[in-house]
């Protein structure tokens, strides 16, 4: 039995053994007998579409006494909710802006959050008492800016299928989910997901220190729609410390969605915790649901998604026929494909859309398939990026080793 305090002392003495979840799973697959003495902390993570993401900030608009209070406000065309503080006659606006709010079908709150963190200048428009006020700001001009999640990092997500012959417009597809049983879209990072590695919630609870979009933050508690079978968490962190490559937005057939990431260190205190950390993808259940009402259809496992498949999209440019209307470029949900058909790896989330859209096979990856009673259903979209989540785990590992991030003991359980 170890304590977090003892582990942190080992970290301070540079004696602690820190592993990423991927490193530990590789040891388990190789048949190594990993014990509590062999590891002190395992870093876990997930990256993908997280609808329950919002920002709270105070934005400067105009000089004092220029307007009494804001009636409406937009940032780069994305609508926000003024309040809760009125800031009467101060020329600033407290606001809440949802990651799923959008200016149009290509740009939403997730894109805005990333642009702010990248240091880009943002257009601010306020309507107050029938008049308009405009400003341009960067994150440096904004005194207070936090990301707060109402829910993220579900222990188990869904694979979504369409059993009907109609194409359904949904946030779980880029071009519309076809059927019957012709494709499936999936979410979740499987065996490296934080809650998957702490099934008894021994270390993840209120007050657990985490990386939210790459920034140090804290777990606030359970998130909305959390249940014993499908727990999730809510968290917060300062936007000014975030990493733009660990967040963003993506287009879907039903409007822009928000990309959010979470990394959590799990101290290995005893054999029970280590046992939970040894779970592998093929042992992680993946519910398959009808996109109509999310009704349960069957269950498979995350081995279908992440075992024997490609986590990163490959590019073979010599196959390109240079079509004037490149379907892969047009449909890429993060607009990561450039005019010369290169992939911007900072934007690409390895979703696989380009591999389906490109008839010439320029963009290639094995995405896997799920086996249903109705037959083999190929995966056409991954809304979670396992490769980026593994990078996040490495980022957290390095911060712990450098002692710029110190694991904390939770204040109370979820």
TrEMBL record:
Signal peptide: none annotated. SUPFAM superfamilies: 4Fe-4S ferredoxins. Residues 339-368 form the 4Fe-4S ferredoxin-type domain. It comes from the Archaea. This is Methanogenesis marker 16 metalloprotein. Coiled coil: none annotated. InterPro entries: 4Fe4S_Fe-S-bd, HcyBio, Methan_mark_16.
């Amino acid at each position: 039995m170890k304590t977090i305090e003892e582990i942190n002392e080992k970290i301070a003495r540079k004696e602690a053994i820190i592993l990423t979840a991927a490193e530990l799973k590789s040891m388990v697959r190789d048949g190594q007998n990993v014990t509590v003495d062999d590891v002190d902390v395992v870093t876990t993570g997930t990256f993908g579409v997280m609808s329950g993401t919002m920002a709270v900030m105070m934005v400067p608009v105009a000089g004092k006494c220029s307007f009494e209070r804001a009636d409406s406000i937009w940032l780069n065309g994305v609508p926000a909710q003024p309040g809760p503080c009125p800031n009467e006659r101060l020329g600033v606006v407290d606001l809440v802006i949802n990651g799923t709010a959008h200016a149009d079908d290509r740009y939403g709150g997730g894109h805005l959050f990333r642009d702010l963190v990248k240091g880009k200048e943002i257009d601010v428009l306020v309507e107050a008492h029938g008049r308009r006020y405009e400003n341009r700001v960067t994150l440096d001009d904004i005194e207070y800016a936090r990301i707060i999640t109402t829910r993220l990092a579900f222990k188990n997500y869904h694979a979504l299928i369409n059993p009907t012959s109609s194409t359904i417009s949904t946030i779980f597809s880029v071009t519309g989910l076809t059927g019957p049983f012709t494709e499936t879209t999936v979410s979740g990072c499987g065996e490296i997901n934080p809650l998957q590695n702490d099934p008894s919630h021994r270390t993840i609870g209120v007050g657990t220190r985490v990386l939210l979009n790459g920034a140090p933050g804290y777990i606030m508690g359970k998130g909305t729609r959390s249940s014993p079978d499908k727990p999730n968490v809510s968290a917060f962190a300062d936007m000014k410390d975030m990493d733009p490559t660990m967040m963003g937005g993506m287009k879907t057939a039903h409007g822009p969605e928000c990309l959010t990431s979470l990394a959590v260190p799990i101290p290995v205190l005893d054999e029970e915790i280590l046992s939970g950390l040894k779970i592998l993808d093929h042992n992680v259940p993946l519910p398959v649901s009808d996109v109509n009402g999310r009704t349960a259809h069957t269950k498979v496992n995350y081995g279908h998604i992440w075992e024997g498949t490609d986590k990163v999209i490959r590019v073979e440019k010599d196959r390109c026929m240079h079509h004037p209307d490149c379907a892969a470029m047009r449909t890429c949900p993060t607009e990561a494909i450039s005019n010369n058909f290169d992939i911007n790896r900072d934007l690409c989330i390895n979703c696989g859309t380009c591999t389906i859209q490109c008839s010439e096979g320029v963009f290639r990856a094995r995405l896997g398939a799920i086996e249903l009673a109705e037959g083999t259903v190929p995966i056409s979209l991954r809304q979670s990026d396992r490769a980026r989540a593994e990078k996040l785990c490495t980022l957290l590992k390095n911060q712990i080793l450098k002692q710029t991030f110190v694991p904390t003991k939770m204040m109370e359980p979820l």
